[in-house]
Every structure is written in structure tokens, then in C-alpha cells.
Amino acid sequence: xxxxxxxxxxxxxxxxxxxxxxxxxxxxxxxxxxxxxxxxxxxxxxxxxxxxxxxxxxxxxxxxxxxxxxxxxxxxxxxxxxxxxxxxxxxxxxxxxxxxxxxxxxxxxxxxxxxxxxxxxxxxxxxxxxxxxxxxxxxxxxxxxxxxxxxxxxxxxxxxxxxxxxxxxxxxxxxxxxxxxxxxxxxxxxxxxxxxxxxxxxxxxxxxxxxxxxxxxxxxxxxxxxxxx
Length: 229
What we know:
This protein is of the alpha/beta class. The protein is 41% helix and 21% strand.
């Protein structure tokens, strides 16, 4: 079987770490395990991994600190695992540089699906598209992954851009959190997983609406979100 990608699992719970390794090995990935935060960081900067699965609570150096230090030298995708499932913890994890955030307990099958989706996106980036997307004073340039507001460039991560692009493509249409998770993250909703959508909406609002004193991203209580001019 061809090796698809190289993945490091950083988890001090031996049962979880072994289970993930077994499932990913069965999918054809080349995996390694580490249970210590400091040692994991040293391996990440010395070895070439395609993705990191990183637990929050680790000895010597916790996952947040590992993630921050890795981001100083690498943009390797990091999926953070944690028993903290509240929105503030998710925000802290994503701010540290995590690409995705998975609360415990989680479905191993769903986590593996997320990993496959992230790696597949990295191998097959979106095709260039010269079409501009516009909502109010916000202009998106999909082919360049660029956004401007009132003519000023706004820096977004790839995931933030994908979320904004999906909302603008569906301008004036209310989209549910489940639908956003499916279309932007690439996997079906599980209990507790839509929290990450709310966190990313907060990111976009701070960078697009609040900074420029505009209101484009609206919450439809009990349903989801909608973008309007």
C-alpha cells in the first residue's frame, strides 16, 4: 500500500494514541507517536510531517505552547484534541495556530475523516477562479485568496477565507452550522462539533465587520448565519 502522508500523533493517553495510530496505519498513512510536549516539538521541527494530531494537556509543554512554537517555524496543519469543549477554549486553541479543534470524547472515524480531508485539500488546492465576489464594501479574489474591505487588504487564514467565500457565495441565504461544517470543513456534523463554526464566525466579524464598523455577517438565532450587503 502506498504511503499517503506522514502524521505525528501527540497524545499522553496511550489508549487514544494507539487507537488513532492503528486506524491511520490501516488507511495507509505513515504514523509516529509521542506523549511528551517538549519531545514532540523537537520531533516536529526536526522531521517532515504532513499533519500533527496534538493533545492539549501534555507533560513538560502543553499543546497550546507546542502549537505556538511550531507556528514560528512551520505551517504544518495541526488538529488539536482536548477535553475542553467550550467556545473560549476552542478560540484559544485556534488562536495558537491550530488548523482544527476536536473536543473529547470524539468519534475516531470522524477524526480520521477530518485528517483525510485536510491532507486531500493540501494535495489538491482549489482551482483558480477569476470571478470576484462582492458584498457591500467587501471584495474577495478567490484566485489569490485575498480580501479587501473599503480598498484595504485584510489578512485571513485559508480556512477563514473559505468560510467567508462560502457565506458570500450564498449571500442573503441563511445557512445552517451543519451545512457550513459540511461545505467548508468537509465533514458531517457530530454533537459538539459546530462550536468551531461559531469561533470562526467571531474571527471574521472581528476582522471584517467590527474593524470597519460594518455589519455583513448576521446570526439567525436557532438556525445559522447569513451575509447581507
